[in-house]
Design brief:
- By secondary structure, this protein is of the alpha+beta class.
- It has one domain: 60s Ribosomal Protein L30, Chain: A (2-Layer Sandwich), CATH 3.30.1330.
- Helix content is 30%, strand content 26%.
- The chain has helices spanning 3-21, 71-88, 109-116; strands at residues 26-29, 44-47, 50-53, 59-60, 65-66, 96-103, 126-131, 141-148.
- A six-stranded mixed beta sheet has the order 1-2-3-8-6-7, with helices on one face.
- The chain is globular and about 45 Å long.
């Protein structure tokens, strides 16, 4: 077989092999043990073994209300909601590789961090923590994560 003929056959076959091998497989993750999505988004999406959660605010899924208390109580509830979503995906907090913490007031960082440390062990996930102007429903904190299987 000539080199040109082999090249032509490969140029036809390789894109199909590449597309099948790298096909994006998305699966919606949803649980009643965390607050329902209140808009056009999912609680989480599993994409090829990575789970991306939507930001979890401190809503008690049983009542639909923000938990009472300050940043510590709200951080705990946000992380309990994250954990519930991950459990639905068959994962634990140990599978988390990246977190993003949004806070209404950066002065709450130390208290948020003390509760956050109760949910993660070494090796700790990478993290960003930022202050934002406001959060949905007047929450003090919102937390999203990326986890891997």
């Amino acid at each position: 077989m000539s080199g040109l003929r082999v090249f032509r056959q490969l140029s036809v076959l390789l894109p199909h092999v590449f597309l099948k091998k790298n096909k994006v497989m998305k699966k919606v993750i949803s649980t009643a043990k965390a607050p329902s999505a209140i808009g056009p988004y999912s609680q989480a999406i599993d994409v090829n073994g990575f789970v991306y959660t939507s930001g979890q605010i401190p809503i008690n899924p049983a009542t639909g209300n923000i938990v009472e208390g300050g940043i510590k109580e709200q951080t705990r509830q946000s992380l309990l909601n994250v954990r519930a979503v991950l459990e639905e995906a068959g994962l634990t907090m140990a599978n988390v590789v990246k977190t993003t913490v949004f806070m209404a007031d950066m002065n709450d960082f130390a208290d948020m961090n003390s509760v956050y440390a109760e949910f993660f062990t070494e090796p700790f996930p990478a993290r960003s923590a930022v202050a934002v102007k406001s959060l949905p429903k007047g929450a003090l904190v919102e937390i999203e994560v990326v986890a891997t299987k």
